[in-house]
Write a structure and sequence with these properties.
The complex is a heterodimer of chains A (310) and B (402). Chain A is of the alpha/beta class and 310 residues long. Helix content of chain A is 33%, strand content 24%. In chain A, helix 1 packs across helix 2 and helix 2 packs across helix 5. Classes of the chains: A alpha/beta (310), B alpha/beta (402). At the A-B interface, helix 3, helix 4, helix 5, strand 3 and helix 6 of A face helix 4, helix 5, strand 6, helix 6 and helix 7 of B.
Chain lengths: 310, 402
């Protein structure tokens, strides 16, 4: 079981043919030193991580675990376009930034972390994947705390990116950077009075809808609870696909977080992380959330989060 | 090659993670035996590949698998390597359908499906040029190609984790696989490392002027860069009792050095810290290490830092060697490939020559193996370092019975 000590992040709507939000002021607040030649993906990581932990010093051995579906996609598109369409050899800084752990390097440098620094991906279930790895490492005592972020940017033109994402034309999109400071729930953590925002448990990858149904029935045996459900290719997430789970999920109380402007949270591969972050800070709902994501191969990536009373 | 298969179920005491199956494809050939036979020659390899479509002529060193003059389509090539390495790793192991469906898969690569996307987009651009229709959007699948192939072709549907931490990717994947086994959560885990040719990576290293015009010379006075290589390795890990037999992945450590985005501190401090944490995590002393499989990329920065790091940790540096002159630098997959080759060398009972080395560099203060040496039972340290300051050291134990 994981305990959430802090959460925070950045999420902004990205619209067709509109300039992306200017991040310079946010970066100035987030960065403790001048970092040159960083791309937008790295900028989002720096901002989101700062919004989570602020200026609180972290133990240098805090694990830094980053997840994303596409990582530095804008930079990668630029490198490939220049290479394939124009015959240019990639510039060194741009080439290195195509590596997904470059962003983790800069976040680690900014926060003075020199411990474990990972990047892990599992399409739209990267949140669940990184949480599972963090859980393994915390349970193995390889790290004592983990700073975990799920980040995905949105390159223009959006029509192209919607094709890559496999969502319907016109699906509202957002760039997102959602972060958590975590530790293992164990005997030593039970003894201290560090405020805990929530606890994450039951993280699993289930092979089919039958296993997902069993998991859901187990965790809904005692309430109250709410459900967040998403599926690959379903950008709106407000509509359920008929995959055998629809009857079970129909009528269950659903958690629908909103963005800063009050509109429904837009699609991002980082959306599950955004939902978890919003839920753990939202005292207006039941205190348990069950999250299920169905991937394109019919597997279910699930987890449970219990918000703690503050 | 099938290694000694431990059939013991996970015990009530904490199990250890043993490597019970290995499969490998590299420029040396298909299968562990073929790779080891060529490593026994002690001779490094060198080849070049011309890149088309650039404004300047690029001929870069590259150790390909198969005929690089008539390469297979990228997707078919990648899948063929996976299929072969997987078949070799699973030979002799009758995983049940349930085990195949649930075992976790830890994947390490630097480039994943980039080469596949390049081919598709290059064809689309060519078509658009002739037709006037704008090309489709640049296809990027993220990091899904490998796990998707394993699910759809081999029914391996367990939790998959795609690591992308530069040259430490599959080494970090191995560390997580060890954890999943040692926590008693899975009886088996699969670790996959794969790296296939793509123009982005080769031209990127070319542009950074990191490539050597000749055979790699790790730790040699005349070292002048690296040669990239293709490769795929699959390792099957199994939970087993700690009985000292076979090959046990004891653990390791991973860290990040913020000195520079492209190399660790050449004073060796960050590299030393990771090696020391690996030893501590496995409750070992420096005197317990029989030999070191070095990262050894023949780049001035890496070899300087690694040598300095080894001298910081070990009062007397154990015998060490690099494997990269044989198979090239296989980037994110080197953790899996070089661990597989290490297993093979230990099974044969011989530590290999550090190919490409001829003349010691006094500034490094140490020199790698220039002759084969018996590989006794005991603990071995395996180093992997990468861009973004990512550093990883693993500890492997070889039993008397292997």
């Amino acid at each position: 079981m994981l305990e959430i000590l802090a959460t925070g992040g950045y999420c902004a709507a990205i619209d067709d043919d509109c300039p992306e939000p200017d991040l310079r002021d946010e970066l100035a607040r987030a960065c403790h030193q001048r970092l040159r030649r960083i791309d937008r993906f790295t900028q989002l990581c720096l901002i989101g991580s700062h919004r989570c932990v602020g200026d609180t010093p972290l133990d240098p051995q805090t694990g830094l675990y980053l997840g994303s579906r596409f990582a530095s996609v804008s930079n990668t598109i630029s490198v490939h376009t220049q290479m394939i369409e124009h015959g240019h050899v990639p510039k060194p800084a741009n080439f290195i930034n195509t590596l997904s752990n470059s962003a983790g390097f800069y976040v680690g440098k900014n926060l003075h972390l020199d411990g474990k620094n990972l990047f892990v991906s599992r399409v739209d279930a990267s949140t669940e994947a990184v949480l599972q790895i963090a859980r393994l490492d915390l349970a193995s005592a390889q790290v004592q705390t983990v700073l975990l972020g799920i980040v995905d940017e949105v390159p223009q033109p959006l029509a192209h990116h919607r094709l890559r994402l496999g969502v319907a034309p016109g699906t509202p999109l957002s760039e997102a950077s959602h972060w958590f400071l975590l530790r293992a729930a164990n005997e030593s953590s039970a003894g201290d009075d560090t405020p805990v925002l929530g606890r994450i448990s039951g993280i699993a990858t289930l092979g089919n809808s039958a296993a997902a149904e069993d998991w859901l029935r187990t965790h809904t045996a005692a309430g109250p609870w709410m459900v967040h459900y998403s599926a690959a290719g379903n950008g709106s997430y407000l509509e359920l696909e008929d995959d055998g789970m629809s009857e079970l999920l129909a009528g269950l109380p659903r958690y629908l977080p909103v963005m800063d402007d009050g509109t429904a949270m837009r699609f991002s591969p980082a959306r599950t992380a955004g939902v978890l972050s919003a839920f753990v800070q939202d005292d207006s709902t039941a205190s348990t959330l069950l999250s299920l994501h169905r991937d394109s191969d019919g597997r279910y990536h699930v987890l449970r989060i219990d918000r703690q009373r503050q | 090659m099938t290694l000694e298969a431990e059939r013991h179920p996970a015990t009530t005491t904490r199990p250890v993670a043993k490597i019970v199956g290995c499969g490998i494809v590299s420029t040396l050939g298909y299968g562990l035996r073929q790779n080891l036979d060529l490593i026994s020659t002690g001779e490094g390899r060198f080849a070049t590949r011309s890149l088309s479509g650039f404004n300047e002529a690029i001929t870069a060193p590259f150790l390909a698998i198969g005929d690089s003059d008539t390469p297979r389509p990228a997707k078919a090539h990648c899948e063929a390597l996976l299929d072969h390495a997987l078949e070799e790793a699973l030979t002799g192991h009758s995983l049940s359908d349930e085990q195949r469906r649930t075992l976790p898969i830890f994947i390490g690569s630097s480039s994943y499906g980039i080469g596949i996307g390049e081919e598709i987009y290059r064809a689309a651009v060519t078509s658009a040029t002739s037709s006037g229709v704008p090309p489709r959007p640049l296809p990027l699948d993220g990091f899904t190609q490998i796990s998707q192939h394993l699910r759809q072709q081999h029914q391996l549907r367990g939790a998959d984790y795609a690591y992308n931490t530069a040259c430490t990717a599959s080494a970090n994947a191995l560390l997580s696989a060890i954890n999943s086994i040692r926590l008693g959560e899975h009886e088996y885990a699969l670790v996959v490392g794969v790296e296939t040719f793509n123009a982005t990576t080769l031209s990127g290293f070319f542009g950074m002027q990191l490539l050597s015009p000749e055979v790699m010379r790790p730790f040699d006075k005349r070292r002048n860069g690296l040669v990239l290589g293709e490769g795929c390795a699959v390792l099957l890990l199994q939970a087993a009792p700690a009985d000292g037999r076979g090959f046990t992945l004891c653990g390791g450590a991973s860290g990040c050095d913020s000195f520079s985005i492209s190399a660790s501190n050449p004073d060796g401090s960050a590299i030393a810290a990771v090696m020391q944490r690996a030893l501590a995590q496995c409750q070992l002393r420096t005197s317990d290490i029989r030999a070191i499989k070095a990262h050894g990329t023949a780049s001035p920065m890496n070899d300087n830092g690694e040598a300095a790091g080894m001298r910081r940790v070990f009062a007397e540096v154990p015998p060490f060697f690099s494997l990269k002159a044989y198979i090239g630098h296989t980037l994110g997959s080197c953790g899996a490939l070089e661990t597989a080759l290490m297993i093979g060398c230990l099974r044969d009972g011989l530590l290999p020559v550090s190919a490409g080395f001829a003349e010691a560099d006094d500034e490094l203060g140490i020199a790698p193996l220039t002759a084969t040496r018996p590989a006794p039972a005991g603990h071995y340290l395996l180093n992997f370092f990468g861009f973004g300051g990512n550093n990883c050291s693993l500890i492997l134990h070889a039993g008397e019975e292997r």
